[in-house]
Amino acid sequence: MLNDPRFTTEVELTIPFHDVDSMGVVWHGNYFRYFEIAREALLNQFNYGYRQMKDSGYVWPVVDTRVKYRDSLTFEQRVRVQARVSEYENRLRIEYQIFDKETGKRMTTGYTIQVAVDAESREMCFVSPAVLFERMGIAS
User: Fold this and answer.
1) Whole-number Å distance between alpha carbons of 88 and 92
2) Distance CA 140, CA 128 (A)
């Protein structure tokens, strides 16, 4: 099921000057912004982006994340950021890979984990809500 192309996406970015330090290397915290850009594109592919999440009565905070810096990203480097849903039943786990666009070299890997929280009660859901399954086209 998760091999469905709707559950994988790729965005291209050019590293801007404001993301790098004085040595021209991307500051480590900016990688999470690149993940966020890809994650938003991915969620929109199955019509459950952040506006739809809020409208459905749930917020989905990131509760865990990891990044592995394999090689440095630098100013004006063109990269491809891939995002893929790898879990959805009890939490939403999205895995990421960042590649150099020119060489295809994998530069970075990581993941984020989000959980559904009822927007009104602020209670965490221990099972993903039915609306996620509906948007993904999966029987709950």
Assistant:
1) 5
2) 9
* Residue (of 78, 15, 82) closest to 45 by Cα position: 82
The Cα 93–Cα 87 span in angstroms is 5
What's the one-letter identity of residue 23? M
* Chain position carrying tokens 């559904």: 116
Across the chain, which has 140 residues, the per-10-residue mean pLDDT values are 86 98 96 98 95 96 98 98 97 98 98 97 96 89
C-beta pairs of 4-7 under 8 Å, 24+ apart in sequence = 4/137, 6/45, 6/46, 6/136, 6/137, 7/42, 7/45, 7/46, 7/84, 7/85, 7/136
Pull the structure tokens for residue 118.
């009822």
Strand order in the sheet with 62-69: 8-14, 78-87, 92-100, 106-114, 62-69
Taking the alpha carbons of 71, 87, 53, 46 in that order, is the dihedral positive or negative?
positive
